[in-house]
Amino acid sequence: MTYRIALIPGDGIGLPVTEAALQVAQKAAPGLLDCVTFPWSCEHYLQTGRMMPEDGIDTLRGFDAIFLGAVGWPAKVPDSVSLHGLLLPIRKAFVQYANIRPHRLLPGVEGPLRKQGFDILCIRENTEGEYSGAGGRVHVGTPDEVAVETSIFTRVGVERILRFGFEQARKRRGKLASVTKSNAQKYSMVFWDELTHQIAADYPDVEVSHYHVDAICARMVMAPETLDVVVASNLFGDILTDLGAAIQGGLGFAASANINPTRSAPSMFEPVHGSAPDIAHLGVANPIAAIWSAAMMLDHLGAADAAARIMAAVEATTAQGIGTVPGQDRTEVITAAVLAALD
Ligand code: NAD
Ligand code: IPM
Ligand code: MN
């Protein structure tokens, strides 16, 4: 059995961390992954005028999974062009509505909260909400200019992400934190709260808490051990998961899976972080987030043993103090340590 994987290394540190993740995945699951690399990136945009070809989505549809490094090089291509030309359309077209982002402290990592262990699974809505793309600008450049960015929350979209969150909570410690800003946003977030209450009736075994997004930010820093599964809208989930990365010790540790739970189209795996232009030429990008994302991909494809072996190797690596301090170890040193720990 082999799985066909579309690799999109993208920009900046997306390239070295993708290479590292694939080396580790190939070693953990020899012969399982048959990879095709696509050079879609800001560089590709500058050469062709497109982030991906017109039939890019159709091309990707034939794969079992997509692995992406990072997209964006704002000095050359505006983010509004690069992200709307590649990453965001893939999430939408393939209905990868559940973005799963685990946050826990790896052994040996001196995160800001080292004394408190925690294990949070953030479930981010990934196809609508604040990222609907609906809106516009009028009277551009005049004193009367107005910009509108409309959030769209559908019953189908909110219900399915909430149910996904409840299911995950059931498999873990039975606690679900639903995140809104329903004290200020009286339509979308009140709707989200109502649906949470309704769906909770189907999951009497799950303990539900409601947090405003500002309050849960403070809780993630001060008492992360009190949280289990956290479910949030697209934008709130985006912000909470960089915070989650920070309490893990840095962006280099946070993994993510963009899942289509019905499996009607490929899912996509990528670290939470971006292309990190500030360190892209230094050779010190931490590949652990990408390696962890590759483990999530193997798990999704049914290779749970290989995924577990990768995570054990990552933990053995950080436990030795390798890759634990941002910028301290070179990418290839961390990768070599994980590869060695796989033996
Ligand atoms: P970023 O995540 O690229 O970087 C934020 C900070 O974290 C930087 O200081 C960076 O050096 C550090 N960092 C990130 N990953 C790291 C790693 N693996 N090891 C060590 N340090 C790491 O966020 P940004 O600077 O806001 O964005 C840069 C570009 O990436 C932008 O174009 C942005 O839109 C894009 N972006 C893309 C994705 C994606 O493709 N999924 C995600 C986030 C940002
Ligand atoms: C992420 C990123 C993207 C997002 C950006 C680059 C559009 O920050 O995957 O977390 O906001 O979803
Ligand atoms: Mn983000």
Structure, explained:
α6 (155-171) crosses α7 and α8 (213-222) runs parallel beside α9 (234-248). The longest helix has 17 residues, at 155-171. The chain has 2 domains: 1-97 and 254-343, Isopropylmalate Dehydrogenase (3-Layer(aba) Sandwich); 112-248, Isopropylmalate Dehydrogenase (3-Layer(aba) Sandwich). It has helices at residues 14-28, 42-48, 56-61, 79-82, 87-93, 155-171, 188-200, 213-222, 234-248, 288-301, 304-319, 331-341, and strands at residues 3-10, 33-37, 65-70, 98-104, 119-125, 129-138, 146-152, 175-180, 207-212, 229-232, 255-259, 267-271. Strands 2-1-3-12-11-4-5-10-8-9 form a 10-stranded mixed β-sheet, with helices on both faces. It contains 12 helices and 12 strands. The chain is α/β, with parallel strands linked by helices and 343 residues long. Bound molecules: nicotinamide-adenine-dinucleotide (NAD), 3-isopropylmalic acid and manganese (II) ion. The site of nicotinamide-adenine-dinucleotide has 24 residues, from loops.
Name the features.
343 residues; alpha/beta; Isopropylmalate Dehydrogenase; 10-stranded mixed sheet; two-stranded antiparallel ribbon; 39% helix; globular; binds nicotinamide-adenine-dinucleotide; binds 3-isopropylmalic acid; binds manganese (II) ion
* Total number of beta strands: 12
Q: Give start-end ranges of low-pLDDT stretches.
A: none
Which secondary-structure class do the elements indicate? alpha/beta
Which topology of the largest domain does CATH recognise?
A: Isopropylmalate Dehydrogenase
- CATH-scheme architecture of the largest domain: 3-Layer(aba) Sandwich
Q: Helix coverage percent of residues?
A: 25-40%
How large a portion of the residues is in β-strands, by DSSP E? 15-25%
Structural domain tally = 2
Distance between the termini: 23 Å
In DSSP terms, counting alpha (H) and pi (I) runs of 4 or more, how many helices? 12
Order of helices and strands: EHEHHEHHEEEEHEHEHEHEEHHH
Shape: globular
Mean of pLDDT: 97
Radius of gyration over alpha carbons? 20 Å
CATH superfamily of the largest domain: Isopropylmalate Dehydrogenase
Strand sequence of the main sheet, in spatial order?
2-1-3-12-11-4-5-10-8-9
- Associated small molecules: nicotinamide-adenine-dinucleotide, 3-isopropylmalic acid, manganese (II) ion
CATH C-level class of the largest domain is Alpha Beta
